């Protein structure tokens, strides 16, 4: 029997009224795989991540995480819509970093990183602080642990947000345009942290990005989304070097010309 993927979107649809954002999406992400999602604005890229974090509901299909359905649960031998407790348990395996940092402004960098492990995981304060200090050191911010978000640059805030997500010990990490709100000179420091996470942690990673060079270098696979569907997917060398779909070629040409 083949191993279930870490993440599976099975005929997943998302609509807002008459507008279809995602149309019967089927996507498997293997354990430890790094997948970049690219495409024009409005193609459904961010919705793919937000559904996995249950920030958006789905209108059809099933989401699977770590071999279990997330949106449904088994009851009397059949799948029924999942209750809140089931969803919370599955969602605990997922961490997400947003483009807008979303740090608590009244908490220090360390405070931001220990809040959820203590309140959600029930971790002791001492263990949570030790874990947070290790992660802040990993993202190069051990000297800033007592600083508040307002005292940090955008790049530093985003690195705190990455450490905060890792503090929950997720199996899956989602990155939604994590460099888009940053000044250009700060982009590199955040991408370097993501590289390090990929190298040092056994994580499945999904990343929505406009950083084509990074997607090409970092990803195991690239998925090009257009109008709510995967238009083309494959290894970075194929997608960037020899795309088969005309819409993929148009998009990449436009991005490279602008970039």
Automatic annotation (TrEMBL):
This is Amino-acid ABC transporter ATP-binding protein y4tH. InterPro entries: AAA+_ATPase (IPR003593), ABC_ATPase_HisP-typ (IPR030679), ABC_transporter-like_ATP-bd (IPR003439), ABC_transporter-like_CS (IPR017871), Ectoine_EhuA (IPR014343), MetN_ABC_transporter-like (IPR050086), P-loop_NTPase (IPR027417). Pfam families: ABC_tran. It comes from Shinella yambaruensis. The keyword Ribonucleoprotein does not apply. It is found in: Cell membrane. Keywords: Amino-acid transport, ATP-binding, Cell membrane, Membrane, Nucleotide-binding, Transport. Belongs to the ABC transporter superfamily. SMART domains: AAA. Residues 7-252 form the ABC transporter domain. One of its GO terms (molecular function) is ATP binding. It is a peripheral membrane protein. The keyword Nucleotide-binding applies.
């Amino acid at each position: 029997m083949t191993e279930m993927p870490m993440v599976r979107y099975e005929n997943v649809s998302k609509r807002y009224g008459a507008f279809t954002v995602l149309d019967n999406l089927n996507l498997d992400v293997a354990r430890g795989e790094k997948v970049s999602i690219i495409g024009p604005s409005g193609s459904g890229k961010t919705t793919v991540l937000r559904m996995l974090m249950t920030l958006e509901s789905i209108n059809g299909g099933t989401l699977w995480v770590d071999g279990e359905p997330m949106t449904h649960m088994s009851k009397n031998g059949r799948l029924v819509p999942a209750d809140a407790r089931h969803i919370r348990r599955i969602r605990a395996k997922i961490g997400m970093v947003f483009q807008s940092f979303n740090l608590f402004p009244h908490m220090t960098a360390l405070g931001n990183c220990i809040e959820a492990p203590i309140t959600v995981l029930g971790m002791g304060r001492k263990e949570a602080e030790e874990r947070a200090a290790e992660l802040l050191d990993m993202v190069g911010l051990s000297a800033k642990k007592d600083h508040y978000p307002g005292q940090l640059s955008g790049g530093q805030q985003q690195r705190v947000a990455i450490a905060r997500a890792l503090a929950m010990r997720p199996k899956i990490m989602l990155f939604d345009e994590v460099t888009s709100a940053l000044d250009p000179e700060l982009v590199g420091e955040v991408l370097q942290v993501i590289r390090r996470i990929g190298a040092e942690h056994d994580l499945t990673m999904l990343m929505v990005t406009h950083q084509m060079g990074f997607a090409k270098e970092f990803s195991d696979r690239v998925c090009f989304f257009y109008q709510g569907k995967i238009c083309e997917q494959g290894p970075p060398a194929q997608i960037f070097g020899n795309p088969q779909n005309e819409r993929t070629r148009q998009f990449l040409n436009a991005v490279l010309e602008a970039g």
